[in-house]
Specification:
Layout: H1 4-11, E1 19-22, E2 31-36, E3 38-44, E4 50-56, E5 69-72, H2 79-92, E6 96-98
Antiparallel strand pairs: 1-2, 2-6, 3-4, 4-5
């Protein structure tokens, strides 16, 4: 859990660094944490299954720069449902965090 000062620092617009150090589960161990802002986009696979891709929007997670981050949706999900899921994620997820 982030302290209120860490939350305030991470919510400032225009911040240049998406990397911070903090202890998550054990105070004795500080872990490198990367945060990035991503846009969720519905995609369709070659076999017709829908999934949602997280595409870089601003600050990125350097560890994911050469990767595709995606979320598979349930089989049979329609295009309109995939769009709704991506819209929901875009409205509610402000950053992706990797520790």
């Amino acid at each position: 859990m982030l302290s209120s000062s860490e939350q305030k620092a991470n919510s400032r617009p225009g911040r240049s660094s998406a990397i911070s150090l903090h202890a998550r589960s054990c105070p004795a161990e500080a872990k490198l944490t990367e945060r990035g802002q991503y846009c969720f986009v519905p995609k369709e696979s070659a076999c017709g299954h829908f999934w949602v891709a997280a595409e870089p929007a601003r600050d990125t997670i350097k560890s994911l720069d050469d990767c595709v981050l995606g979320f598979d949706l349930e089989p049979g999900v329609s295009h309109s449902r995939a769009v709704a899921v991506a819209d929901f994620l875009n409205r509610n997820i402000v950053a992706i965090t990797l520790t």
